[in-house]
Amino acid sequence: MTIDWGRRYLMCAPEHYDVSYSINPWMDTTVRVDRDRALAQWDALVATLEEAGAAVEFLEPRAGLPDMVFTANAGLVDGRAFLPARMRHPERHGERTWAEAWFRGRDYEIRDLGDDPGIVQEGSGDALPFAGTLVAGYRSRSSAAAAEALGRLVSAPVLPVDLQDPRYYHIDLTFCPLDERRAMVVPAAWTAEDAARIAELVPEALVLEPHEAATFCANAVVVGSTVVMPACPPRVGRALEAWGFDVAVADVGEFVKAGGAVRCLTLALDVTLSVMVGG
Asked: What are the beta bridge partners of residue 223?
């Protein structure tokens, strides 16, 4: 049974993309970004998503906001509602204005996380739906208090997951829903207690080995039965194919320089959390 979301995405062209500051362990300002190559990779990702059957809409890039290309962090979509992110780092605060304007211009209801400065939440990068539950990461980039705030704004139960490994600073680097029963997971990035909770939630998990997780293969999106991923280690590919999935590899190596891959570059627009309760 395929998941009922992941066929519409919001993306932002890498016109101003760069690694001009460091806000995660992968970002090294001494490493040069090849912007022409980044644009070619981004165009190829758009084409791959569309070939798999997804529709892609576009957010206009803005100068001075190099990470705006990572639209997953813009917020969360719940039907015709948009929950704007509250970014931890000031370098990304300016992105909210443009993301919120895009959704307001299309008549989305805006649901705000509130004024509590202790609530930091970085969009779908740290909140992914699985089988009736919103799996929400916290520590490096989103706060523990954000899970409770999300619970007040959506009707789905929220499962907080403590991301103890700073390399995997968002949940979307460690958890990829595949269908209603299966997901790719990186339990080594979580506390033992949260790994046990995810094991209870996911009936069939593809547990990634450390060298596999380091390829960012969990930072993938699923369009029907096609898994679009930045890399596919051999064992992972065999497991996915045995489950009936097709694998489409989209090289996004220029964006990995900033700690992001396929999921980071996309924001699912067809998620409806309000009808998820009960699975």
From this structure: 226
Options 12, 176, 232, 264, the catalytic residue: 264
Catalytic residue among 16, 93, 170, 232: 170
Question: What would the two tokens of residue 107 be?
Answer: 């008549």
| Domain map (residue ranges) of the chain | 8-273
> How far apart (Å, rounded) are the C-alpha atoms in residues 258 and 155?
33
Q: Which residues pair with 206 in a beta bridge?
A: 184
Q: Is 170 a catalytic residue?
A: yes
- Domain spanning 8-273: CATH superfamily: L-arginine/glycine Amidinotransferase; Chain A (3.75.10.10)
pLDDT per position as a tens digit, 52-106:
999 999 999 999 999 999 999 999 999 999 999 999 999 999 999 999 999 999 9
Look at residues 192, 184, 226, 229 and name the one whose alpha carbon lies nearest to residue 209.
Answer: 184
3-state secondary structure the chain: CECCCCCEEEEECCCCCCCCCCCCCCCCCCCCCCHHHHHHHHHHHHHHHHHHCCEEEEECCCCCCHHHHCHHHHEEEECCEEEECECCCHHHCCHHHHHHHHHHCCCCEECCCCCCCCCCECHHHHEEEECCEEEEEECCCCCCHHHHHHHHHCCCCEEEEEECCCCCCCHHHCEEECECCEEEECHHHECHHHHHHHHHHCCEEEECCHHHHCCCCCCCEEECCEEEECCCCHHHHHHHHHCCCEEEECCCHHHHCCCCCCCCCCEECCCCHHHCCCC
Mean pLDDT of the 14-26 span: 96
Residue tagged 């999106």 (tokens): 221
